[in-house]
Predict the 3D structure of the following.
Amino acid sequence: MISFERVTKRYEEGHDALREVSVDIARDELVFLTGHSGAGKSTLLRLIMLMDRPTRGKVIVDGQDLAKVSSRGIPRHRRNIGVVFQNHKLLFDRTVFDNVALPLIIAGYDHREVARRTRAALDKVGLLSRERALPITLSGGEQQRVGIARAVVARPRILLADEPTGNLDPALSAEIMQLFEAFNQVGVTVLIASHDLALISRMQHRILTLRDGRLLGAAS
Amino acid sequence: MRAKASGAAQRREGASTSRARFLDRYRSWRDHHSLSAADSLRRVLDNLGSSLLTWLVIGIAMALPTALSVALDNAREVSGSWDSPAQISLFLLKSTGAEAAQALQAELQERGDVAEAVLVDKVAALEEFAELSGFTDVVASLDENPLPHLLLVSPATGVEPSVLQAELLALQPVEQAVVDMAWVQRLNNLMDLSRRLVLGLAGVLVLGVVLILGNTIRLAIENRRDEIIIVKLVGGSNAFVRRPFLYTGLWYGVGGGFIAALLVLAALFFLEQPVSNLASLYQSNFQLSGIGLIGSLQLVLLGGALGLIGAWLAVSRHLGAIEPR
């Protein structure tokens, strides 16, 4: 589903964020990506989302060589990927419902379908009763769940998460991880960047470790 | 294993239904247009104070050239309604006698392209001159009358004075035909000059309106930078991001055009009474003509168009620069 072939990303200031990274992530897989901060976790996710392009190497997502996606094609590419951000990136002047509905509106669904799917996604993360609330009135964990609902509402084939449990206590973190596992169960490829080793090593999934931009031996 | 297999089947089903059909796409595109329009209008109305200021600035900038152009139209109407703007003076040959001059006057009076022909007899003219100038003695000492008979001819309405002048010059006893056109030409030139000045002013102010709107939209884009980034991150196209800002520009422009129409209307209302008072002093029933309903609608439409152009300029300049980092 996601494959990197000898990918190197060098930033303009000369810093190599990724060096010769090669990895294959299959459909239906849930993979953790770990490493100290600055090891290249975010860069790897950014390359998948086309927020950046690799300096060398090839990134293939869902059979598509990303080098062949023009800048006009980026929105369409991103619609196939759900993303959960560490700092949630919610619209604070919109209700929870409107935040979650955004990808569906962008993708162009009929408004009844938008309402149906949005409520289904909110139900899945246990926030259906808060659909009229503004994000600012929610707790950190709840905001993160709104972000997750938004990431999965358009039923993407790939779900990326950048430190989704970064600011949460262990119980909430475990809960969030269970949500990701549930999505993986229904066939979504999930890639989670996290440095919460204690949490992710308890879960039975492949862990990719980055150190200074290089991928260490993959363990499962 | 079974869970995974059924999961995959479910995903395939999800993938096929997630391709929204074309008609749905069209509907949702339309829905997003009305949603953006309504949302932009709500934002404009939420900040009523600053929106009102923007509307006023645009309204004044559009009302100024409109009002001047209305004033010019009225001035043209006034000048056009004056009778016989040009008069042709026919100086007859010295040898022409009084009877011949009178016969010519009668003949001219019969013509269709002549409204009026007045004979100024040379004897009467000399006496009048002597009387008015005070040179009675000098005039009396002249051996013969130096003045010719003079016919003042007013062309009928719609007759080009210069054409008539050429025809009259060909007549037998006419020595010279002079069209007293200078002041008409001056007036026309003045009107042309004013028209151009108004056009130039309108051009500059239209440019100003576009720039003001562009700047207002630029600020709106800056204020919603985070939102734009988020929309782009979840796959919003440039057109999707652009849409609400174009509508914001449209609303500012339409409001400005509306204010402009109101201002012009108010100015006309304010001037109507004194103008008709003045006109009645000149025994005229001249009425100020305004821009009318169609003109007002055109102003509103023009405002909307300028708003769209300004917004488009701002959006194409600034939106591309906002990318998720």
Summary: The interface with chain A takes residues 3-4, 7-8, 10-11, 14-15, 18, 20, 24-25, 27-29, 31-32, 35, 226-227, 229-238, 240, 323-325 of chain B (CB under 8 Å). Strands of chain B lie at 88-92, 114-120, 150-155, 174-179.
